[in-house]
Amino acid sequence: MQPDQPAPGRKVLCIEDEHFIGELYDRALSKAGYVVTIEPDGAKALEKAETNDYDIILLDLMLPNLTGIEILRTLRDPARVPPLKSKIIIITNLEQRDDVRMDIEKQADGYVVKAELTPHELVEFLNNIK
Amino acid sequence: MDDLQKYRSRLRQLIFWLLIVENIVLIASWWALDQYLNLSKGIVIGISLVVAVVTSLLIMMIASGAATQPLKAIWQLILHLSPSEHGIPKPQIKDVKFGLELASNMANQIYQFAEVTSKIATDSEHQVHDLSLNFIAQNMPLPLIVLDPSETINFANEAAAQYLGLKSADMKGKNVYMVLDMSFPAEPTFDTWLKEVKTKNATATNSWERVRMSVGDGHPERLFDLAAYYNRENPEGNETMLVLFDHTKQYSQDEQAVSFIALSVHELRTPLTLLRGYIEAFEEELDTSGKPELADFMEKMRSQAEQLVAFVNNILNVARIDNNQLELHLEEAVWPDTLKKAIDGLSLRAKVRGISLHCRFAKDLPKVGVDRISITEVINNLIDNAIKYSGKSTVIDIETKLTNDGLVETTIKDYGVGIPNSVMNKLFTKFYRDHRNRAQIGGTGLGLYLSKAIVSAHGGNLWVRSKEGEGSTFGFTLIPFDQLTDNAKKAGAEDLVRDAHGWIKNHSLYRR
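Structure tokens for the assembled complex are given below, as produced in the milestone run.
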């Protein structure tokens, strides 16, 4: 995988419960050559993420059944064997409490305020993930 | 007592031999007087008497001197040890010929006795001291916890037990991290700090704000400030001391305010995300060839949506400032470059109004320490104001220079409507808007309030000079990066640097 290059076929799990946002991201990412799976449910998303089958996981924080921060903590549990290879990018419009923010800074690979990026800008952002 | 008997027998021997010598002298003198000098009996007796008296006196002196030798040594010793008689040298027990062992033995006993009594005296002093320390620690109305080198709780006072809803006896002997499940707003946390000082420092202190901790079911979460003291050589294993300052009420009020705003911001941002997404999709798909007006509409919608996003961020920042939670991530920056980038973003808006932005940047300015996003917001606000209040004038001057104090000063000068004296002092208050122009000029009344707070947080100063009808000059100073305190720099370097849209770990473009 070449860094800083759009990577056709890179698998993205987009954990996002807002249907229209998921749809917009799916459209833009698919156009750019990413293979996208959208999952709006927290618990089901964790199951999917645990298959270790994705290059990138886009993780919203406010989710039904299991919150994003719970998913992040589970996926980044240091006791996990083998460790999760996926890069985890938090996508949120919510401002975090300091302790949650610290966990995100430690455990996530990237962070995006959704309102700050258009779907295209998100694609550009993901293209930069090595 | 062996030594006493030894001394007595030596004394007996001495007196015995002295008496023998005296008797021999008496007999000899009697015999000599009688034999060689033909003297009358009376005179012989007289002379003998005189000899007897003289030798007896000699014997008395020798015997009494010998008998009192050890006493003399002991007396000197007592005087030496006595608290009221200072400056008396310690007696040389060696000089004692009679009863040396007795004297030195007694001396040793006296010394031991003296030691014991002085120890008793100081011990009781210590006891009183310990008691009062214990009283203070136990009853101090702040939770106090003391840890041994293995981070086990050695002592927890009554206030600590109460605060944590435990018994102080139950806390003793437990690992501190089992008892206090603290979460910290930022690095270093207490445990990383302690780990570090243990390898580096003999003593250290540190404090933390807004530490949170849940104390079990049914109890509200605790929010407190924490102060810690570490001393590697502390006696009795009391190596680390923790004091907790409860601010649950105050901090949770702040948090409720912020979390209300954070939630509102979330609710506003979600439709904005969608709007921006669909506008983008439209721009992509819509065939505007031959309809330049449509392209223009799209562009306007896009820029308005962006402005709304910025406004939402402003609201969030004001809430942060009001609760002292504004966080800057300072980085070293070439100021004219940063400034130019911000100005470029605004020149279009100025152009639309027929205003040109004239820039004059001093050369060789020192690099400054800024949070790019926040400081861009300041520039945006000030230039935006200058554009809005330019009236009929067509020029805005933007200058940077080095002040006499070695600060980097940026001024934005317009030649517009100016500000009347009467409102100058209200200018930087929240939600203040110039009533004269309220109908014509849009704004939130947050821009200057926010800008001043951001510049202050950078260590600089934001000021204004204005004359009604002649225009206004807004200026602000920034501190050169080299002059920033080490702490500020450290925070900037260690902290991940924010990008406008988000961050990617270890990436040069979206560095964090």
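The interface with chain B takes residues 18, 20-21, 24, 27, 62, 89, 93-95, 97-99, 102, 105, 108-121, 125, 128-130 of chain A (CB under 8 Å). The mean pLDDT of chain A is 88. Further analysis is deferred to the final report.
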